Amino acid sequence: MLKRKNFLYKPTKRRRKGNYKTFSKKKKFISETQESKPHQISENEDTEEGFNLKTSAPSHSHGVQPLGNLFFSPSFNNSRNTGLGNLQTLSDELVLEILGFLDGTHLGILSTVSKSLYVFCNHEPLWRNLVLEKSIDGFLYNGSWKNTYINAYKPSSDVLSVESMGLKVRDFYSDYLFQSWLCANLEMKPEWLERDNIPRRKGLSVDEFVENFEEPNKPVLLEGCLDNWDAFEKWDRDYLVEACGDVKFAVGPVEMKLEDYFRYSDQAREERPLYLFDPKFAEKVPALGSEYQVPEYFSEDLFGVLGNERPDYRWIIIGPAGSGSSFHIDPNSTSAWNAVIKGSKKWVLFPPDVVPPGVHPSPDGAEVACPVSIIEWFMNFYNATKTWKKKPIECVCKAGEVIFVPNGWWHLVINLEDSIAITQNFVSRRNLLNVLDFLKRPNANTLVSGTRDRVNLYDKFKNVIEATFPGTIDGLVLKTEEKKAQQKKPSFWELVTDSRAGAFKFSF
């Protein structure tokens, strides 16, 4: 039986949306097309759909064009179909899923069958998946995933060297393949960054934070919290590489030395760059854990009563421009804070009762279907939020700033440049009951994360809280019930109105 490979290393279910037109090749360029083709948008023609490419963006490998350009082709021939033969009826995504069953040697052999299969078999995410499956202990990136695979594993087949020929296929049209390249090479549009509607505070007291933001479950950006951090002064690339040495950190499904990760991040041009996201960094390199302090606003963390049995709660985050996290809600109904030490991050947040456009969670919340990459979400769904009554909270969080992410909020984060950050999830009295409710859900074994003992975490946590802080849970339950009763209680004017209405009816 064939073993199905984890194509593209998908942590969540993804969807691809494509609807392309031809674009100018200069600043507004999207498509790589021939100047002689009729009815093409000129280089001086302005178009809202245009995008700016990164200065280092290469021309699209193998000559793939968006499907819309087919309508301007004199031959009206798509070599994608002729090269696939009877397989042309399959979607591009399904073709790639099938190719995901093959190893490197067989991909190389199949790429010589036709120009169309050459394009499909050289799709970089296929080779990325092969490298990640074989390189649990890390890899040395070499310009592309295919080159990385060849250099590391040297398959016996010589056909893999055909890439050095630089073959380009004419009249190959595919939205799916084109968008993968496009998302890897787009600059963030200015209109994606200009909205900044998050409250910003400096010198806020803890009581003010609790009353104005944590209690009502609203995000806020805090300034000045990192001023006394050693990490804020010391944590650059050279310092971290020297301090961490040969220690390996979690990068997607593999473990890598920082030096090797930076080698990858400097060269990588892909739509979903690998993100260094390690929950055990302070245990691996204790000095890193001592060079930052939890801001006073988040000092209460009730999961701490579990000691070493607590779920994962703190991470060092390192990534290049374009890396980040697609829309998600933080685990176990916790709240979080994220401090940027180097670089900057674009944040988009939606309240718990608003599901972001293009995001489709399963009824139980265990899975989320969303666009393949963060850039793709901005391309296809961001503009829709401008007409929503409940618009998202947005900001660019810069070095030295901290953002508070309340529990239950959907959020997306993308690095605008090479970035280093620390984030922690926490449980305070304000969201303790939410966490307990989450941990005791019937499907806790699929929802709870960051711990091996998912099913028993609720009982463990509740018992230790009751022993350590007697009466706390009962007090919070009583307070919640009183608040609900108060909200249902009619106001003075409502009572007066009802009284007058009753009297009027009676006299009549």
From TrEMBL:
<feature type="domain" description="JmjC">
    <location>
        <begin position="283"/>
        <end position="443"/>
    </location>
</feature>
<dbReference type="InterPro" id="IPR003347">
    <property type="entry name" value="JmjC_dom"/>
</dbReference>
<dbReference type="GO" id="GO:0005634">
    <property type="term" value="C:nucleus"/>
</dbReference>
<protein>
    <recommendedName>
        <fullName>JmjC domain-containing protein</fullName>
    </recommendedName>
</protein>
<keyword id="KW-0560">Oxidoreductase</keyword>
<keyword id="KW-0479">Metal-binding</keyword>
<dbReference type="GO" id="GO:0016491">
    <property type="term" value="F:oxidoreductase activity"/>
</dbReference>
<dbReference type="InterPro" id="IPR001810">
    <property type="entry name" value="F-box_dom"/>
</dbReference>
<dbReference type="Pfam" id="PF12937">
    <property type="entry name" value="F-box-like"/>
</dbReference>
<comment type="similarity">
    <text>Belongs to the JARID1 histone demethylase family.</text>
</comment>
<keyword id="KW-0408">Iron</keyword>
<dbReference type="InterPro" id="IPR036047">
    <property type="entry name" value="F-box-like_dom_sf"/>
</dbReference>
<dbReference type="InterPro" id="IPR050910">
    <property type="entry name" value="JMJD6_ArgDemeth/LysHydrox"/>
</dbReference>
<feature type="region of interest" description="Disordered">
    <location>
        <begin position="28"/>
        <end position="58"/>
    </location>
</feature>
<dbReference type="Pfam" id="PF13621">
    <property type="entry name" value="Cupin_8"/>
</dbReference>
<dbReference type="GO" id="GO:0046872">
    <property type="term" value="F:metal ion binding"/>
</dbReference>
<keyword id="KW-0539">Nucleus</keyword>
<dbReference type="InterPro" id="IPR041667">
    <property type="entry name" value="Cupin_8"/>
</dbReference>
